[in-house]
Amino acid sequence: MAEEGEVHYASVVFKTKQAKPKGRTEEETVYDEVKVRNETTEKNLDSNGNLVMIVDNVGAGLLANKETEKRSHLYQWSACCFGTVCVILLLGIIGVCVYLTFIHESESQLKSNQTALLSENSNLTKLNNKLTSDNKNLTSNHNDLTVQMNNLTQAYDVLENKITNLTAENKNLSKQNQELNTQKQELNTQNQELEAERKNLTEQVQNTEAKQVEFNVSRAQWSIDAYCPKKDNARTCNQCEKGWLLITSSCYAVNDYQPDKRRSWEGAREDCRGKGSDLVVVGDNPEKTSVNGEIWTTSGFWIGLKAENGKWKWVDGSVLADNSWMTQEPQDGHCVILVKDKGWKSVSCDGKQQWICEKAALSV
């Protein structure tokens, strides 16, 4: 036994980490030596570089008491769990006994009810047999009455059908008579209307003939004045009317209007048709060069080329033969304009542009 006031120390030396042998996956702690000292607690390295820790004997005693207390708590917890399991098993056994008692009583009650139901069923069967017999008798009497009623009904139906047919025939005759009268009136009305229309048509024909004669005379006079202008009481005829340019065998009208008077492609074509012509159709390179040389503004001029069904088509129905003249792909809703010194360009047909008309020259 150590004297009171004496403190014993144990030093534990931890060796540095060595190379692990095969199969070992965790670090190991190697206790090298334990020494008893009467010195204060220290933590030093020995000559080999191992860590030396000084552990107090009093602390080791405290650790042992804690371990004992921990085991005591573990035993108490185990006993508590075992007691709980026993209570649960006891309650389960009691529940099963109660359930079996309830089942036995239910079976007794069901047997008693079954006996009463069998007795009641026998009584109901007898009553049903009696009612069935009475029903057969009533059914037989009812069938006899039904046969008699059917015979009377058939006779009544025959008479009613005859009356109905006669009534319907009478109504049809009356209706036909009314329809004939109505048709007669309608025919009289139509005859009067046709007679009035015939008179109107006759007057319209006469007026139209008079206007046509007047128009032809006016058109002939206009053509004479346009192609053969009168100068010094003499007329000199030209292949193109006044204001039109003669290029080879066609006459061209370059409509270089101001922006407020420019038109869409359809509007420009309508103007050309009103002048007895159409938008220009370019047939070859000489004509293309000649037409391009007659315009002097840099604004676009509509020509008779339009995109239809993925192709460039002229107003005369022909397809553009030389694709080098129009390199842009045809797009529905687009038409072609001629721009001075810049070739042809695809733009929206709704845009406002100037235009060029073309018609055949007269043979003089």
Stated plainly, the CATH topology of the largest domain is called Mannose-Binding Protein A, Chain A
Work out the helicity level: 40-55%
Q: What is the architecture of the largest domain at the second tier of CATH?
A: Roll
Please identify the top-level CATH class of the largest domain. Answer: Alpha Beta
Overall 3D form:
flat
Count the DSSP helices: 3
Query: Count of DSSP E strands?
Result: 14
- Cα(first) to Cα(last) distance is 157 Å
How much of the sequence lies in strands comes to: 15-25%
Number of domains: 3
State the main characteristics.
364 residues; 8-stranded mixed beta sheet; 3 helices; Mannose-Binding Protein A, Chain A; alpha+beta; 3 domains; 19% strand
Q: What is shown here, in short?
A:
With 364 residues, the protein is α+β, with helices and mostly antiparallel strands.
Give an overview in words:
- The chain has 364 residues and is an alpha+beta fold.
- It folds into three domains: 8-18 and 26-126; 142-237; 241-360, Roll (Mannose-Binding Protein A, Chain A), CATH 3.10.100.
- The protein is 52% helix and 19% strand.
- The strands form three sheets. Strands 7, 8, 9, 10, 11, 12, 13 and 14 form an eight-stranded mixed β-sheet that branches. Strands 2-1-4-3 form a four-stranded antiparallel β-sheet.
- Strand 7 (245-247) and strand 8 (250-255) form a beta hairpin.
- Residues 1-45 and 50-58 have low confidence and may be disordered.
